[in-house]
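Page 37, continued from 36.
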């Protein structure tokens, strides 16, 4: 990279990172969730901290440890994640990596739903969750740099570009998560960077390497 101002080019910069899935309760013992290990988001939080940024990581339920040197806020639901992200503003940058559940159960049950033999099976009425990236991308306290992720199973580039526009992001990191790629839950990632002025394809990399490259690119952005 072209960095020449020491090892901590993001010193003094605040970053918000979301990671992991959200869990949307159905009743006290059941939930709806996306597949997400949190590995990519946590690696990005760690990589930004390593470059000197003050990082607030808003994490959904994951099985991995909090990154060292990062302020981690644990949440369950999308609305809680949104609240924690907004509470962390203002910030210089936001990197939204979480696999937020698009819908939640309209009215979660207070008590465990029980089977009643011979009676009808329950159906779930869903309602839309807040779009956290879109909220931040259009916020009056919008961070200078807003980055989103897009996990797609088809038409990766056109879908990601539509998200770039719709959500008010500066950059979308897109990856193909169709089952054949084996990306989901794995340790590697194969991404394309979608910007307003072009596309950049990165080779197949470990999630930690994707995180370090992205953090370096962010540092160059703030250095310029
Ligand atoms: N995102 C978010 N809040 C949501 C949904 C998504 O912050 N409620 C963020 C994700 O963290 C990611 C980006 O938006 O950075 C794209 O998420 P994705 O699920 O791919 O986009 P959606 O707009 O939900 O579109 P769809 O799932 O229909 O493809
Ligand atoms: Ca979604």
């Amino acid at each position: 990279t072209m960095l020449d101002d020491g090892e901590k080019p993001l010193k003094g910069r605040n970053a918000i990172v979301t990671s992991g899935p959200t869990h949307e309760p159905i009743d006290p013992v059941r939930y709806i969730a996306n597949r997400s290990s949190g590995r990519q988001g946590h690696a990005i939080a760690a990589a930004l901290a390593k470059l000197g940024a003050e990082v607030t990581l808003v994490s959904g339920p994951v099985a991995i440890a909090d990154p060292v040197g990062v302020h981690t806020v644990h949440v369950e639901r999308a609305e809680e994640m949104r609240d924690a992200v907004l509470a962390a503003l203002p910030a210089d940058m936001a990197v939204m990596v979480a696999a937020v559940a698009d819908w939640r159960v309209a009215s979660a049950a207070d008590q465990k739903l029980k089977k009643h033999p011979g009676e009808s099976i329950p159906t779930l009425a869903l309602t839309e969750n807040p779009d956290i990236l879109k909220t931040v991308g259009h916020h009056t306290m919008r961070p200078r740099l807003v980055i989103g992720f897009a996990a797609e199973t088809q038409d990766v580039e056109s879908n990601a570009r539509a998200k770039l526009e719709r959500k008010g992001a500066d950059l979308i990191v897109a990856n193909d998560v169709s089952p054949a790629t084996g990306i989901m839950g794995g340790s590697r990632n194969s991404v394309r960077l979608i910007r307003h002025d072009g596309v950049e394809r990165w080779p197949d990399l470990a999630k930690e390497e994707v995180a370090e490259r992205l953090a370096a690119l962010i540092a160059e952005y703030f250095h310029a």
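The radius of gyration is 18 Å. Flag for discussion at group meeting. The chain has a mean pLDDT of 94.
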